[in-house]
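User: My advisor, Dr. K., asked me to get a structural model of this assembly before our group meeting. I'm new to this, so sorry if the format is off. These are the inputs:
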Amino acid sequence: MGTVLSADLLRGYTEDIILGRLEQGDSYGYQINKDVKSIASACGQDFEMKEATMYLAFRRLEEQGCITSYWGSEGSGARRRYYSITSVGQGRLQEARVTWDKTRQLLEQLLGSKNTAESGEERES
Amino acid sequence: MGTVLSADLLRGYTEDIILGRLEQGDSYGYQINKDVKSIASACGQDFEMKEATMYLAFRRLEEQGCITSYWGSEGSGARRRYYSITSVGQGRLQEARVTWDKTRQLLEQLLGSKNTAESGEERES
DNA sequence: CCGAGATACTTTGCCTGTCAATGCATTGAC
DNA sequence: GTCAATGCATTGACAGGCAAAGTATCTCGG
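Assistant: The format is fine. Below is the predicted structure of the whole assembly, which you can bring to the meeting.
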């Protein structure tokens, strides 16, 4: 169902995706994993953030001070490690969005996407 | 001058960028490298496709049958290896644009970019 | 009570693309 | 003769993604 997107095309965005999710409120690995899957599915796309990838990204983000974590206090079920975005993380997310926007524009130019390739010629000497 | 874009954010797109350039006509490494730089610069961005990265990508593309190459016949100056996009490469480029478009949409959702986060709540149980 | 399946987190080792560094060869300007 | 620009190519290291495997708890059906 839907296009299978290679996560390699999103390489380097894993941490920012997590931050984007945590901006909506504290969450934990399994939940974020499912959220990402369902968002992708709503876009008609078959994408999943692999667990190994995700948990390693949590580690990095915490080292960088972008998130903090705490063990949940549910009486039943497996224990959950909740993550919370910090102000450092917020800043980083803002920045990531700006960078993403510029990257997007650039790649569109470089790929010569239809929407920007209207003009007949644009070869500079 | 402009934002410095980490090429790592474009990881995996190198080959497609090259194909996009070759669609404009046969070219060679040094030229493509300069074209990319000047396109980025026109976007107000400081991005460069590193030579090592580029030449390795040429290699891969040729192995995949997406491009062919031939030595230029200029009487003077250093020899140039020209590359030409094949129909396989054309197909791949078409595909890449579609994939890119989907990836773009998805990442915008996942990062929670301003333009798509209007609705108040969208948390599913 | 037992097994299957969902929930939930973690580690190991491999693969692949990027890139700094380095090297080679030619040409033209100073 | 030397320096910068052109032009191509290889090497080794690094980092992120991921398959695979492991641990542990809970729930539900039989």
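One thing worth pointing out at the meeting: Chain A has one domain: 3-113.

User: Perfect, thanks a lot.
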